[in-house]
Amino acid sequence: MYLGIPATWGRAKSQSLNWIMERVQDKVAEWKESLLNQAGKEILVKAVIQAIPTYAMTILKFPMSFCKKLNALVGNFWWSRNHNKRGVHWRKWEEITKSKAEGGMGFRDFPLQNLAHISKQDFLSAPKVKCASWTWTSIEEGRKFILANCRWGVAKGDKISVWRDSWLWNGTNLQAWDNGHDPMVKDLIAQGNRKWDTRKIHALLPASQATLVLQTPLGLVGEEDKLIWPFNKSGNYCIRTGYHVARTSKPQPPSGPSSSTSAPKDLCPTIWGCQAPQKLKLFLWKASTNSLVVKRNLFRRKMASSDLFPIWNEASETVEHVLLLCPLTRAVWFGSPLQITISLDNLSRFDLWFLQMVNKFKQLTAEGSELAMLISFLWAIWKGRNNAVFQSVTPNPSQTIRQALINWQDRLNTAEVTPPESTSNQGRVRRNRAAHWMPPPPGTIKINTDAGWAKDQPLASLAFLARDHSGQILIGGTAGILAASPLVAETEALREAMIMASNLNWGNVHFESDCQLLIDTCNGKKLGENQIILEDIQLLKANFQSCLFLWVPREVNQAADNIAMLHQQHSLPSNWTFNLPPLLARIIKRDRDRLDLRIPHDPRRLMSFDPRGMGS
Questions:
Q1: Biggest CA-to-CA distance, the chain
Q2: Which position has the higher pLDDT, 545 or 611?
Q3: Residue 446: Cβ-neighbour burial (10 angstroms; 0-12, 13-18, 19+)
Q4: Which pTM was predicted?
Q5: For 586-613, how does the pLDDT look when each residue is reduced to its tens digit (9 = 90+)?
Q6: Is pLDDT at 1 greater than 80 in this prediction?
Q7: Coil, strand or helix: which one is 475?
Q8: Rounded to an integer, what distance in angstroms lies between the CA atom of residue 357 and that of residue 249?
Q9: pLDDT at 434
Q10: ∠254-258-259 over CA atoms, to 5°?
Q11: CA distances from 123 to 63, 127, 139 (A)
Q12: Kind and range of the H or E element at 450?
């Protein structure tokens, strides 16, 4: 072994990885001696077992048989009842490896986890090798996965094939209409001005695909085409999103007949997001997915001779019967402070009933105490059923109600409700922010940008307006472009403003936008959706002595917003910078009237730049 990796290995790769299996088995054997509930097992699986092979997974592609053994080991451990009894797997492994929001437990599937880790290696330009080693073939497997799911950001377009590569903004590929011709994307770009050649594109492609091409952003400043991982906000590959892509793209086996209908989408996020101990959340998940050990489920698996309720043997024991419909259970619900009346007329499935009750409590109050009481009663009813079945304790509705209220009060007394610090701080910052346009410092120019975008309109409208510290308009500009989303349009507007300021050799500039996400990306959080434009913005930023990106509320950005709206409505005159439209003139005057400065017009000031030279 060298650094946790086998120094040599033979044909049997699984034998070279036995040290991983031994470490996992040792951990599982230690934990089985402890009386852990499934909530505790979940934490140990995710924090320890799934982390053991991480280092080796970043270098080697594990054999599928070895990964399946690891999956089986984790599954057997999580479902086991104690150290000497193998539990029943009430849900398929493919289902519990789904995220909790999708109805699973969020366990990692080891083959997909392995693929996500080896794809982290940056060997995209390395050549293929014949008779390569285990390590090199593993790297090639990760490279194949990356190239199959990445998207190109177009600058020059000389590295990108029109037909073979993924480069459109929505991640789809173009259908080849001319099999004998393999053009590069650079052939669709007009020479000299780095814009799409509309004539060539419409001649080569049908209208629907031509629109997708024209909506794809082009890099105007950067020279290199870049590979973008579109599933991460930064545009860079990360293991978390890599695993998600690998899992969603994995071919799913045909599903057989199911005994239950799919749960509502907001059910599982509600369960895992409620204020309750982890074991109670797990109990609710089992009840909602029909994974509780009731006689109907045991009978269906041929593990019981009958599905009748074991206390009275009068009805089939289902999750709904135990928790809601049993006469003793209905007495508990009616005698509780919630005073819930349950009948077959308004009940079909437990998960639908539970979600209905949650929504009802949300409408009544936002405190969550009623929901906590509901969960406490469900748990007390289940515990009472188990005591009656396994310990022959006579069911007593009054005792169940009393125990549920004690548990509920204990949880309320121990609950710690602390508002997130970041949220409260952010609220204070926004309340303290000035609700009107603020001038930049003397010697600095402030440029407000905005974009108008509508899904049913072909063109988005870009607008920017530059003013000095006295509120005097220096220059403004508008443009119409095809944009795939409002964020792309806002980013294009900012880039156009920066190109204008750079061409005018302005040194100190503040750029303001009412798009919070755009300002966050410009200040270090890149987005894969518009990364090629952000690359240009970062390159342009180097042309200024001082350059700040600032977020302002929409009411502060009214001037740029009004310009974009008028341009989108085709009601903005071509000479609007000299003859302001009435509403825009009032906005500019109001912003200036709020300033204490009254600086007379000086022809030597930056106002001398002719805005007509920029093109409106």
A1: 98
A2: 545
A3: buried
A4: 0.75
A5: 999 998 888 754 444 443 333 333 333 3
A6: no
A7: strand
A8: 36
A9: 54
A10: 175
A11: 21, 9, 7
A12: strand 445-452
Question: Nearest-CA neighbor of 60 among 19, 119, 131, 128?
Answer: 119
Question: What does the pLDDT read at residue 597?
Answer: 46
Which DSSP category does 612 fall into? Answer: G
Taking 90 as the threshold, does the pLDDT of residue 287 lie above it? yes
**CA gap 343, 479 in Å, rounded:** 63
Task: Give yes or no for a contact between 509 and 549, defined as CB atoms under 8 angstroms apart.
Answer: no
Q: What does the DSSP assignment read for 428-442?
A: HHHHHS-SS--PPPT
DSSP 8-state symbol, 213? H
| Confidence tier at 191 by pLDDT (50, 70, 90) | confident
Tokens representing 1? 């072994």
pLDDT of residue 227: 87
| Contact status, residue 4 vs residue 56, Cβ threshold 8 Å | yes
CATH match of 432-613 with 3.30.420.10: yes
- DSSP state string for 72-134: HHHHHHHH-SBTTBPPP--S-HHHHTS-GGGTS--PPPHHHHHHHHHTTS--TTPPP-TT--H
What pLDDT digit, counting tens, does each position of 76-103 carry? 999 987 656 678 899 999 999 999 999 9
The C-alpha angle 63, 64, 66, rounded to 5 degrees, equals 70
- Examine the pLDDT at 432 and tell me if it is beyond 60: no
The C-alpha atoms of residue 368 and residue 255 are separated, in whole angstroms, by 38
Q: Which of 466, 480, 446, 468 is nearest to 550 (CA)?
A: 446
Check residue 413 and give its pLDDT.
79
Q: Exposure of 588 by Cβ count < 10 A (0-12 exposed, 13-18 middle, 19+ buried)? A: buried
| Exposure b/e, 534-544, CB count within 10 A at least 16 = b | bbbbebbbebb
- Among candidates 103, 98, 144, which has minimal Cα distance to 243? 98
Count of positions (residues) in the chain: 616
The model's confidence at residue 258, banded by pLDDT at 50, 70 and 90, is very low
Give the separation between CA 424 and CA 441, rounded to whole angstroms.
Answer: 29
